[in-house]
Amino acid sequence: MKKYNVGIIGYGWAATAHIDAINATKQGKVGAIYSSRPLDAAELSAKHGGPIKVYNDLDAMLADPEIDVVDITSYPSQHRNQAVAAANAKKHIILEKPMANSLQEVREIVSAAKANGVKGCVCFECRFSGQFTVTKALIDQGLLGDLHYGEVDYYHGIGPWYGQFRWNTGKKDGGSALLTAGCHALDALLMVMGGEVDSVTSFSTKSKSEIFAPYEYDTSSCTLIRFKNGAVGKCAAIVDCLQPYYFHTHLVGSQGSLLDNKFHSNKLHTDKKAWSNLSMHMLDSGDVADHPYQTQFQAFFDALDEGRDMPLTSFPESLRSFEVIFAADRSAELGGVPVKVSDLS
Ligand SMILES: NC(=O)c1ccc[n+]([C@@H]2O[C@H](COP(=O)([O-])OP(=O)(O)OC[C@H]3O[C@@H](n4cnc5c(N)ncnc54)[C@H](O)[C@@H]3O)[C@@H](O)[C@H]2O)c1
C-alpha cells in the first residue's frame, strides 16, 4: 500500500500528466478524481493502472478519510475556493499554477493551509528541471560569482492550436501574460537570483495578429526587477509569439556568465572568447508530458514524510513569487510606474 492517496480535482490536460507522475513516486498514488463532468471509474482505473473512485461532488471527495492529498488542476478562478476547502478538510495540497489570479486569494490559500497544519506544493516544476538544477548548482558552487544581472524570459505562443486557448483568453482565468504562463520564467529568475525583491517596473502590450485577438488582456509583458542587494533582473512573458517555445536564460556575475546551456567562468579558466557547453535537459517544450512533475512530487512526498515544507515550491516560497508577479501586473496597469513589493495591499 502506498502511503499517500491523492484525489485530483479536474480531469484535463495537466491532470493526466500529474496522475502518471504521482503514480511513479515511491509513496503516492491517485485513488480518486473529482470532475464536474460524468467520468467512468472503471475506464479511468484501467487507463491509469489502479482503482480510481470518481466523485461528482467535491465535498464528498474532501470528506473521504482515505484521501491524504488533494491535487488541484482546475481552472485558475476555481483554485482559491477549492484549495481553502481542501485545507479545511485537513488534506495536503498540490496546486497548479497560477495559485490564484489575485494576491488576496493566494494569501487566503496560504493562510488556510497554515491554520490547518497542511503542506502545499505549487506546480512551479521548472525549479526541478534538469536545466535549472544544473544552473543553480553552477551558481551555488560560485562559478559565476555574485550575480548582478539576470534575465529569464518565457516565449510560448498560446494560440488556438493549444488546448488552454478555450479558457485562458478570458481575463477571469487567464489573468495576464505572467499569470497564465510567464510566471514560470519569473519564478525561475527569482530562484537563481536569490535575493529579496525591492520593486518592479512592468510594461505590457499585445500582438496585432488576428490569431491572438480573442485575448481579453495584454499577452506580452516585460518586467524589470530591482533586488534589495542592488542586483537587477528582467523577465519577458510573451504568449502571443509565432516561434518555437523558448525559455531564455542569461545570468551575469562577477566570475562569469551563463546563456541557456553555455557558460564562461573565470574560476574554471575557460576561454572567454568562446562559450563552454553544458550538457543538460533543457526546458524547451510547453507539453506537460515533458515537465519534471515526478521529481517535484517525489520531493513533496519526501517532505510530507518528515513533516516539513518541501524545498523550492512550498506555499510560503511560491507566495513570494506571486507577490512579485502581482506587483508587476499592478505596475503594468499603471503604465510602468515602479511598485514596491512591500507596498502591495
Ligand atoms: N505547470 C504547468 O506547466 C501547467 C501546464 C498546463 C496547465 N497548467 C495549469 O493546470 C490547470 C489546468 O490546465 P489544463 O491545461 O489541464 O486545462 P484543461 O482545459 O485541460 O482542464 C482544465 C479544467 O477543465 C476541465 N475540463 C477539461 N476539458 C473539459 C471539457 N471538455 N468540458 C468541461 N470541463 C473540462 C478539467 O477537468 C479541468 O478541471 C490550470 O491552472 C493551468 O494553468 C499548468
Written description of the protein model:
- The protein has 345 residues and is an alpha/beta fold.
- The protein folds into two domains: 4-118, NAD(P)-binding Rossmann-like Domain (Rossmann fold, 3-Layer(aba) Sandwich); 130-286 and 321-343, Dihydrodipicolinate Reductase, domain 2, CATH 3.30.360.
- The chain has eleven helices and 15 strands.
- The chain has helices spanning 13-23, 41-48, 58-62, 76-88, 103-116, 130-140, 165-168, 171-174, 177-193, 293-305, 315-333, and strands at 4-9, 28-34, 53-55, 69-72, 92-95, 120-122, 147-155, 197-205, 220-227, 232-238, 246-253, 256-259, 262-265, 276-277, 339-340.
- Strands 14-13-12-11-7-10-9-8-15 form a nine-stranded mixed sheet. It has a six-stranded parallel sheet with strand order 3-2-1-4-5-6, sandwiched between helices.
- α1 (13-23) crosses α10 (293-305), α4 packs parallel to α5 (103-116) and α9 (177-193) crosses α11 (315-333).
- The longest helix is centred in the last third of the chain and has 19 residues, at 315-333.
- The site of nicotinamide-adenine-dinucleotide has 21 residues, from α1.
How would you summarize what this structure contains?
Helices cover 34% and strands 23% of the residues.
Give Rg in angstroms: 20 Å
How many individual β-strands? 15
Write down the CATH topology of the largest domain.
Answer: Dihydrodipicolinate Reductase, domain 2
Name the poorly predicted regions.
none
Query: Count of helical segments?
Result: 11
Q: Helicity level, as a percent range?
A: 25-40%
Which structural class best describes the helix and strand composition?
Answer: alpha/beta
Tally of discrete structural domains? 2
Which small molecules are bound? nicotinamide-adenine-dinucleotide
Biggest sheet: strand arrangement: 14-13-12-11-7-10-9-8-15
Terminal CA distance reads 46 Å
What CATH first level of the largest domain would be assigned? Answer: Alpha Beta
Shape: globular
The CATH superfamily of the largest domain bears the name Dihydrodipicolinate Reductase, domain 2
Question: How large a portion of the residues is in β-strands, by DSSP E?
Answer: 15-25%
Largest sheet: 9 strands, mixed
